[in-house]
Amino acid sequence: MPLLPLPKHRTSREDVVRALKARHSEDANWREGRTFSLVYYAGEDVKRLLEEAYTEFMSENGLSPLAFPSLRKFEAEVLAMCASIFNGDANVCGTMTSGGTESVLMAVKTAREWAKNERGIERPEMVVPISVHPAFEKAAHYFGVKAVHVPCGADFKVDVNAMRAAVGSNTALVVGSAVAYPQGVVDPIAQIAALAKEKGILCHVDACLGGFILPWAKKLGRDVPAFDFSVDGVTSMSADLHKYGFAAKGASAVLYKNAELRRHQFFTYADWPGGMYASPSMTGTRPGGAIAAAWAALHHFGEEGYVEQAKGMLATTDTFVNGIKSIPGLKVFGDPPATVVGFGSDTLNAWELGDAMEARGWKLDRLNKPAGLHIMVTPAHARVVEPFLRDLRECAAGLTAGQPPPEGSAAMYGMLGAVTDAKQIDSFVKDFLDGLYEVG
After folding, report:
1. 233-257: pLDDT as tens digits
2. Using one digit for the tens of pLDDT, what is the confidence trace for 286-324?
3. Which phi and psi (to 5°) does residue 327 adopt?
4. Structural domains of the chain sorted by starting position, each given as residue range(s) with its CATH number in brackets
5. CA end-to-end distance (rounded Å), the chain
6. What predicted TM-score, i.e. pTM, was given to this entire model?
7. Closest Cα to residue 172, out of 142, 140, 150?
């Protein structure tokens, strides 16, 4: 990486802001609903509220509840509200984290410590669906927990019989998703939790993506299976406030059935010359703004507001789903109950379709095994359903007629799909990451 000298002289506030805005103009257009992941936009009024809450506590550090009791109260109240939303009792507790990945990391670390301290398991394992979020792979890598993968069925939900067969004497944790990122389906949590209880092990529900939409969808009469602490055997959950909770990034929650479990998450160190060190989660410094903005979002929306938002998003999703199904050659994967949808084709190259849509200004995530495209519907997408479906229909028709797709990521996905050497794929992706840090 070439060196970049620090400017020798000060830059005016106006010039700095001008440069920031110029860079910002190059980013994905999420305000107008042309991006289907990464940003959960509930409108300018909500954005302004979050900005006010965040900046009010921008300098405060959640590492010290003694110095900043306001943040301690905010966090405790956020977690208590989350426990209520997810049908927990008074024993349910947890911590806020910087995002879904940290929540998952903490749940896996907790399972590792529980297995070692309570069961004497020195090499703990976790049994996870092949569709589970890569955060679990990261946790396995970081914490030395072996991830045992099991397949999903034709409905894209984890095969519980395969999960049962994979549970062994070193298994500490089984995992289900609500919803699974790729196809937006809910794994059979009741069966997974029953298996965990039978085996005397832990059961984590990854509701990072679906946690703040599924409860409201159920209240609106949608067929949402039980997925939370109402299910006997569920011992922990993760849910992202900065997704469908519409909080500011980064804000997630990891919750446990009781405080005894949560204690395995904490880190303490008493022999430091700098004094007693205690940290509840992965990070040391914890941005106060994210904690305060999460509290603000929950109070601003309340159950009434979340149900209202869900009603609109679900109606928009229905229109997307029906429109996709009506396009020759396209199909929706599984039966997603909420606002996350995967779709693909048996006759068209879905990645080439994604490139064609991207050429028209639409940002769609790519799926693999099977190849597909992915949308996560937010309030911002209500205004773009018709133009999106029109472009999708035209792009699909063009590919069917033999029209060459524009250059994009399809070739890369196709190449990676054809490579069977995992180390070669790993090296390619790391080269890509290296390139992101080049100045220019």
Report:
1. 999 999 999 999 999 999 999 999 9
2. 999 999 999 999 999 999 999 999 999 999 999 999 999
3. -85, 125
4. 53-298 (3.40.640.10), 303-418 (3.90.1150.10)
5. 10
6. 0.92
7. 140
